[in-house]
Amino acid sequence: MLILGIESSCDETAAAVVQDGQRVLSNVISSQIRLHTAYGGVIPELAAREHLKNIRPVVQTALQEAGTPLEKLDGIAVTSHPGLIPALLVGNAFAKGLAATANIPLVGVNHFLGHLYGTFLERAEILQDPQAYPILGMVVSGGHTALVLLPEDGRAKILGTTLDDAAGEALDKAAKILGLGYPGGPVIDRMAATGNPGRYNFPRGLVGAAGKPVPPEHKYDFSFSGVKTALLYQVKDRTLADAELHDVVASYQAAVMDVLVTKAMAAARDTGARTLCLCGGVACNSHLRALLQERCRKARLPLLLAQPKYCTDNAAMIAGAGTHFLAKGRRDPLDMPVSARLPQDLGVIPFARLASL
Question: pTM higher than 0.85 for the full model?
Fold first, then answer.
């Protein structure tokens, strides 16, 4: 089954061709980072204009690299939600045009689930192993920070999500406060490697670290507004020496990543998860990957880390996830809407073991 995936939910114009849900034949990405750097974040209207310029050549390149003409495709999967509405509309309009022109089935894919599936690209056989379930996924990116439980029957449930900033957003805002540029995640990761993460004790939100119990309804939720505010006051009206700046960055990163790992391990323990997977753009962070690997090793919990090339926004994860929806007979109409929000009810996820049978 050959599926073309199209992704345009934010500032990456991407297209990929994936065979049978796991063999990536092409994965083309056009980034807009330079365009948005001057603004310290993504401007939706500018992103949409860039998508309009890039979508056709990106899709054509993906098809050419895969050696797959349009008429040989079995379906088209496109990110339909969540994301920036102007950006989503470009990818969806193009996907619908291709589907109508070549009479190819179309399916809209949840970007959040795409990230989750990205963990299993090129190793989808894990999804067919009953010993892997239930699977606990932690999706960490600029737009999402959430824990989702995937049982064997595919009825996925979001256990917790962020109450304010996503972890990636907290990193970007920290970089802006410190004048480090955009995007913040990669530069913070690099600078933290030479800093002292224990020099400053930044707050850990919603983990009970300050002696205040976490409300039961927020047991698996995240909050990063407090650590961001603490950073702002730590550096306000100060000029930091280079070494001190690195220590501040390392301490801030440690606080954010500690919360992520603490929450993930607690959820894995409480739910009896047999597998933990980490995905999303922030899953590229070296400190997070190392810390989670260490904690999972001690807990004897199998850990799957998404490959870095499938962590950030890409279309291979959309095509891979879309394969399973199409294989189950789902077809979306050409008037399929787009949405900015992540639905709380994820429904039955067809790439879970029993759901795929």
Answer: yes
